[in-house]
Specification:
It is built from eleven helices and 14 strands. With about 300 residues, the protein is of the alpha/beta class. It has three domains: about 50 residues, no CATH class; about 120 residues, 3-Layer(aba) Sandwich (Rossmann fold), CATH 3.40.50; about 120 residues, 3-Layer(aba) Sandwich (Rossmann fold), CATH 3.40.50.2300. Strands 4-3-5-6-7-13 form a six-stranded parallel sheet, sandwiched between helices. The chain has a six-stranded mixed sheet with strand order 9-8-10-11-12-14, with helices on both faces. A two-stranded parallel ribbon has the order 1-2. α6 links the parallel β5 and β6. α1 packs across α2. The longest helix has 16 residues. One of its GO terms (molecular function) is transcription cis-regulatory region binding. This is Putative transcriptional regulator protein. InterPro entries: Cro/C1-type_HTH (IPR001387), Lambda_DNA-bd_dom_sf (IPR010982), Peripla_BP_I (IPR028082).
């Protein structure tokens, strides 16, 4: 039997494509699964496109929220579909000795590219870039705008400014909702600038992630300030707002995929970041070894 790619091999072995990728790149898998894959390869004809597999190190923070983790999964699947062998390294949001030890794995490794997936605006670590300097031309940053590097980024401040200005055309009392763990200052600056431009008082509520108390504070903020629209961008805030679905308030959210829009409110508005465009351009960069450093600002659109 001829096996043509990772997907077919994974299906026969009864495992995920990621496990096959780790097998060929020397990553960690169970001895039992390694033996099973070896047995399959011995008894079947496999087109060994991956003998000299193009290895990518994918670096990302440990504290990704569910939305960003979903983006990471799409990125990983896109790389695996291109038959890259992907090694994933999780790093903390604060530079620690453990992080440096993990990154030292790169020093004696053979790889084609490093992708630093770091969409967390409030936790970017300059020490990582310092460490990656020797491989600057092989590194792609996703989520941060760093001059001189190949970067795919979202201008969060501009995005939120444009979104808020759009909302202010129909609503004057807008609440900016965030949490203490995910208080995106770039988003808030964009919101604040838009409010100042039209002489509207900016209103913010920072949730403490303490359940009922947050629900009470959010309810009071909506009622006391006659809020017409609430801007939120992370899952906990949206979870609380679902409980308040009967209140006459519009909810404005941010997503990276139209398919992720599944909300119970009427008159919602959604800012959609063009993630598919980024994946297409990323694959083009990976397939072009002579690609020079460039900065790609991701596009976005508003769905009314």
């Amino acid at each position: 039997m001829k096996i043509r790619n990772y997907k077919e091999l994974a299906k026969i072995a009864g495992c995920g494509v990621g496990t096959i990728s780790r097998y060929f790149s020397g990553g960690s898998i169970s001895p039992q699964m390694a033996q099973r894959i070896e047995a399959i390869l011995k008894t079947n004809e496999y087109e060994k496109k991956t003998e000299n597999a193009k290895v990518i190190y994918l670096l990302l923070p440990t504290n990704l929220n569910p939305s960003y983790f979903a983006l990471f999964q799409k990125l990983l699947n896109s790389l695996l579909n291109q038959e890259y062998a992907v090694n994933t390294i999780f790093l903390t949001s604060n530079w620690e000795q453990h992080d440096e030890q993990q990154l030292k794995l790169l020093i004696n490794s053979n790889f084609e590219k490093i992708i630093l997936f770091w969409p967390v605006a409030n936790g970017f670590i300059t020490e990582i870039l310092d460490f990656l300097q020797p491989w600057k031309e092989q590194t792609i940053l996703i989520g941060q705008n760093c001059p001189g590097w190949t970067t795919f980024f979202i201008n969060n401040e501009k995005l939120m400014y444009d979104f808020t200005m759009h909302l202010l055309a129909k609503a004057k009392n807008i609440l900016f909702l965030s949490t203490k763990e995910n208080d995106n200052k770039e988003f808030y600056r964009g919101y604040y600038k838009a409010c100042q431009e039209v002489a509207i008082n900016p209103q913010q509520l920072v949730l403490q992630k303490n359940g009922e108390a947050d629900e009470v504070n959010l309810t009071n903020a909506i009622i006391d300030n006659k809020i017409e629209t609430v801007i939120c961008y992370e899952d906990y805030s949206q979870f609380l707002l679902k409980k308040l679905a009967n209140y006459p308030v519009s909810v404005a959210t941010i997503t990276c995929n139209n398919e992720d829009i599944n909300q119970p409110w009427k008159n919602d508005k959604t800012m959609v970041i063009d993630w598919a465009e980024m994946l297409t351009k990323l694959v083009a960069v990976l397939n072009n070894p002579d690609q020079k450093a460039e900065t790609v600002e991701l596009r976005y659109k508003i769905n009314d």
